[in-house]
């Protein structure tokens, strides 16, 4: 392909300048890219510049790339003008499948055929979004988390028509741009993090609906409970440490029966020996030689650092 | 009642000295209490002292209460000896309903009848655990999070036989001891945080089982994604900010349809106007006058502080 290398991207086009699109604009500017933005809303430029200005102190504190400047943002009047200049396109339109289908077709028609076009969609697959687009081989999902200028994660996944080379190009580009990337091998609705977040969110909605907890109690239960651990160790490693010296193996053998408890409205999978072993072995791979004591010490240092950082120690 | 005031507790008895019980021992010692511990395991004292020693540097860094010392720990040989001296009992036995029923009956028989007995159970209700106990009116759930010496949250909830006065006494005691308390009005299996955590955990297990994500990807998706936000703003306030200036109201009206998406195996409740309003009004109460811009600025400062604290900025 004659596509520019992931490290050689200079101009990023951002289509859509709401909370997510505007967050991307701020991030790419801070990383030293030239950014061209387009959004059909009347007051889009004003809102976008407000959002970039609000994010800039945070980005400055984290460290701007050499030469990074808000002056490298150009807001243009037409999609065609925005896309013609792109080395990479990030689409962040409202979450509406019909709109995405049409917009991605329009973007693809307006963008040089080698240029990768990535969508911020929260959960649609590129297979269902790319139905009307030509050159669909360069359409890919690059799903960020709000705010994209601070949260590192980007989930990258292609559709049926996406070239595998485009998926790895996109993952490389986001990594080069400082992101933390999950490169998915196949389409799963909601990707990874949103499936987990959505399960929690739906359980929370059920609890509010049933009068089991208030909105404030739900938030407190996370910020003062598991949320303090999840900033540093994910749910798997968290439970690896809940098992004491026996780790995840002991945890599953000890708490496995609670999978049958009505602790959430979500049915659990059967804890087959295969699933148990997959989880245990995954934790061991992730621990990568660190003992339970090592991980406990890391967690404790991390929780203390987080509590202190948030002024709560 | 002749019960000691929550502020006048001097001696805490910890029954069970595994990961959770031992964590409680370390916490109460650091807060200046005298702690009496009992555990039937052969090597319980050795493991307990190892755990307390491992936690002590963290607790020292966070600030010990005046006079706090590991020397104020006594490990005794019998449950009766442990309970006779208690101003408050925290039970942290393995998560086994039959065992809890018998043990709580034994603890209640051995403890002066005015003394509150709290269980660390991860999800059983006190109604089902207290079936064999006399003086069940002073039995209550006080559910901590691992490690109890660092994570602030304790969920307090009584059973059918529990006196409401005991529930509020226990909440007051834990607050006085420096904990963040959710005082539940009625029993819900798994309480609040474990229901949310369990929904996420079950979705994660389904994803591993179906080959949709690896253990490492699941953890990365949280630590580098929503987990960074949840240390400072819970899932409700997080989504309040996902709606831009329109807040939760806009978010629900915009992303509400995604509740119908297959983004998790958990069925969503119907987003009735009543549920929508309850969530929106809860967020407004929680925001307590802070504008979206205020909350965005708080979140950004918080995420940056957390990233810096974890050495990831």
Automatic annotation (TrEMBL), chains A, B:
GO molecular function (one): oxidoreductase activity, acting on the CH-OH group of donors, NAD or NADP as acceptor
- What UniProt keywords are attached to this protein's entry? Oxidoreductase
What SUPFAM superfamilies does this protein's entry cite? 6-phosphogluconate dehydrogenase C-terminal domain-like, NAD(P)-binding Rossmann-fold domains
Q: Which residues form the 3-hydroxyacyl-CoA dehydrogenase NAD binding domain?
A: 11-185
Cite the Pfam families for this sequence: 3HCDH, 3HCDH_N
Query: 3-hydroxyacyl-CoA dehydrogenase C-terminal domain: from which residue to which, for each copy?
Result: 190-258
Look up the record and name the pathway of this protein. Lipid metabolism; butanoate metabolism
Q: Does the keyword Oxidoreductase apply?
A: yes
Per the record, the GO terms for biological process are: fatty acid metabolic process
Which family is this sequence assigned to?
Belongs to the 3-hydroxyacyl-CoA dehydrogenase family.
Report what the protein is called. Answer: L-carnitine dehydrogenase
């Amino acid at each position: 392909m004659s596509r520019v290398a992931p490290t050689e991207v200079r101009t990023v086009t951002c289509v859509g300048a709401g909370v997510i699109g505007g967050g991307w604009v701020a991030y790419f500017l801070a990383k030293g890219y030239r950014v061209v933005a387009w959004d059909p809303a009347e007051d889009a430029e004003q809102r976008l510049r407000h959002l970039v200005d609000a994010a800039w102190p945070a980005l400055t504190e984290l460290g701007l790339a050499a030469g990074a400047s808000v002056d490298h943002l150009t807001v243009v009047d037409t999609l065609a003008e925005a896309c013609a200049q792109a080395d990479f396109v990030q689409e962040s339109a409202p979450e509406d499948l019909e709109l995405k289908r049409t917009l991605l077709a329009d973007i693809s028609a307006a963008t040089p055929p080698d240029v990768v076009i990535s969508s911020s969609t929260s959960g649609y697959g590129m297979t269902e979004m790319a139905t009307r687009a030509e050159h669909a081989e360069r359409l890919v999902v690059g799903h960020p988390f709000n705010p994209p200028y601070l949260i590192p994660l980007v989930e990258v996944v292609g559709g049926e028509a996406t070239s595998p080379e485009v998926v790895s190009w996109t993952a490389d580009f986001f990594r080069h741009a400082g992101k933390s990337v999950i490169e998915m091998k196949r389409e799963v609705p909601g990707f990874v993090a949103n499936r987990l977040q959505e399960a929690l969110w739906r359980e929370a909605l059920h609890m509010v609906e049933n009068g089991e907890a208030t909105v404030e109690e739900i938030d407190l239960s996370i910020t003062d409970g598991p949320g303090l651990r999840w900033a540093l160790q994910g749910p798997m490693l968290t439970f690896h440490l809940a098992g004491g010296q026996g780790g995840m193996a002991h945890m599953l053998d000890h708490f496995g029966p609670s999978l049958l408890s009505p602790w959430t409205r979500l049915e659990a999978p059967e804890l087959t020996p295969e699933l148990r072993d997959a989880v245990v072995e995954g934790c061991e791979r992730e621990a990568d030689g660190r003992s339970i004591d090592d991980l406990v010490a890391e967690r404790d240092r991390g929780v203390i650092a987080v509590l202190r950082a948030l002024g709560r120690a």
